[in-house]
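Before relying on records like the one below, remember that each one covers exactly one chain. Contacts with other chains, cofactors or solvent are not represented anywhere in the record.
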Amino acid sequence: MTFTELRQQYPEFIFSGFTPVYENGTLHITYHFEIAGLCEFHPEWYIPCAAPDLHDPVLHRMMYSLGLTELVSYWKITCSPKVRIPEAIAAEQAEWWKRLYFGGLGEFFYRNGIETDFDSFMQFTCDHGNPALRNNPAQSAQRTDLSGFLIPVGGGKDSIVTLNLLKNQLGNAYAYQINHRDSSEKAALLAGIPKERILEVKRTLDPNMLRLNKEGFLNGHTPFSAIVAFSAALTAYVNGLKMVILSNESSASESTVSEAEVNHQYSKSYQFERDFYEYEQKYLRCGVQYFSLLRPLTEFQIARYFASLPTAYHEVFRSCNAGAKQDKWCGHCAKCLFVSVILSPFLPLKEIARLLGAPMFEMPEMEPVLQELCGALPNKPFECVGSRKEVNISLCLAIARAEQSGEALPLLLRKYQESPLYAQYQADAAGFGQEWDAQHNLPAELAALVKRECVEAFR
């Protein structure tokens, strides 16, 4: 069925509430969603912590907000025009959530050929009172007893760079991951965070959603990094931690589609980071600070710093989504090719091929993907990849590095060298890497640290 047909047949999505229970050192939250006339969904979260006060209004607001973030994964099945929620929210707050959904679902709308607009794609309704706002967050004082920080570790190079930049401050740091990944745990342990300070949260997806996806209902990308944001802030709060320190870079703000604002990485963008900061200040008032340590940097600068780290980190990092469940590189996707490209100015090509288990630059079937990455084709791959400019700069520098070492150019680099893009970017490549994006939320002392280690150290 089409978007229009599904909305007509299933006009209402219901978020009826959530059930929190604390048992055996774990906060267990079950959310209750329903597509009226189709089926119910009950996704669950398990968050390790000491016993929290389940009557704490701040905790209630945080759990409710995580539910509002979670619901979009189920709403997208039918895109019901009306969303009924259990606790009323202010009009400005409703606009905030619609902005997250609309921006975070840009790829979903685009790839499913859905034409809609901000005003009409969804409307919130509420049949009940206003307990979520009864304890007015604007009038509540933020907690002052929080300390230490929580670092989401996905196992890729970015979070490894964050861990190393903070290596002298890890005494009161915890690593955070949603569901277990070997690469995430290995990276945290290698950086010096002991296993007892790796907070592994479990998130379950309702099997009804997976079944409906197989049956042909609407499916696609949702803003997962928003899930990370709200769940990490909640995990930090119940564990008494002050900061959630992300590893998103400035490159994440570039649109994936050249002729429209459709960003695969919307919830990794600075816009979302800024919006989340404002949401915490106005509606949560939990006292947890949320920001990305790497926001002023490009993927190029992050890769440069990562390449300079001990080789043990090179062996354990994993960024491939296709191979994530097996904790490996698949060796034939856009993410694997991008990682090869962004590391190519800094590591030997043979070493990159060994780390990823595939000579990506020798694979002719990857040429169209490379053209997407560098902008020869209009749209980037729908993956978490860097900007078109830094891809071109990296390719130019990889060619220069290979030529200086007497290394024969692999197939894709030879083809790129013959393209107009090589001529366009070659002259500027050598001076690249001193960029600093002033749009960030870093405390002054951390901004100085990142600038010193990732920019000034490579002059």
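Residues 3-135+143-292 form one domain.
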